[in-house]
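Service request form, structural biology core

Requester: graduate student, group of Dr. S.
Request type: structure prediction, single chain
Budget code: on file
Notes: please return the result as structure tokens.

Sequence provided:
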Amino acid sequence: MTGTASGFRAPSSALGDRLPDFYCPVEDAGVHPAAADLGVRALAWADRWGLYPDATERAWARAIHNPDFVGRIMPYGDEETLLLFMEWNYWAWAVDDWQDSGTAAGRTAVVVDHGQRVLRALEAPGSAMLPPGVLSAALDDLVARTRARFTPAQLWRLCAGTRDWLSGVAWQTVNTERGRMPTLNDFVAVRVSVNGTRFSLAFSEVANGTRLPPDLHFSPAVQALTEAAGFIVSSDNDLFSYAMDDHLDPPAQNLVNVLAHQEGCSAVDALPVAVALRDRAMTYFVTQCERLAARAEDPELPRHLDALGHYVSGCIRWMSAAPRYASPRNRHPLPVDGAAYDITVTDRPAAAGDRVRVPEVPAQDWWWAQLDG
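Core staff response, request fulfilled:
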């Protein structure tokens, strides 16, 4: 797969030389006009707190393309909220890299213990449960500014999203420690949590100023769409990050490897099934968004659905151009500037999907029940 950097070739893996087309009929809204400037401020914040111990770690943090991620999923949002979310991301990815470092610090007991302490710091500042250090001090700063900016209801949703994210990470760590590949159904049920979907969307709601009534926000139909959006983004991440994790033993827990393990086939044979599952979720997402928007009685609902669409479409463009994925660390000592995947985004699902047997996923069946509601 050829990247956009001159003379650069994006990595091949067990999936082949080119990633499949990405079915996404959701319109690309572009990037927030202030994203680049906000990114400079966010990185300066990370530098002030010393989140990265050396130039190499800082380079890999920049390779995530944090401003592009935030600017694409929140293309019209309030600038100060975008800045705050960028800073949270730098902090969260620093913690994520620490947990994925392969050291004893990544053991399940440590991950669970640290997660509960982080959550308490957000819910009740001053609880003195975190050990002194750079990450703890930076978190205290984030928490104080977040609580000053969010309403009580918004803060509650952020705490719920944080708890969801941390519990997903703990579940994944348990599997890794036990050398266990989850079943497809178990993986699908938890993958949205591992991805931090609800944590990210809590910031999106504040940035966009949407105020759905609680009974509508937490209705089964809206929550099914939230989960579908998270599954699509997670599935895309599993494709873009596949080469980045293909050195791991036991193998990384991603949609392709889970299917290959369950079906007893190779990764390349599992790929069309993974794409079919992902495309089926996209079809559901687009169809249900149109249905709900057409009959919406609350004007906030279409805006909320648009934000979910920005999350789905924005993440594709962001991940395709992030050197963290296109020039992964297991192949390069430093990220390659300008490295990107040359992808095709299409408004049609994969033609092979009609010929692929898609396994049953009971954990997703409840989505379709909402079509009749």
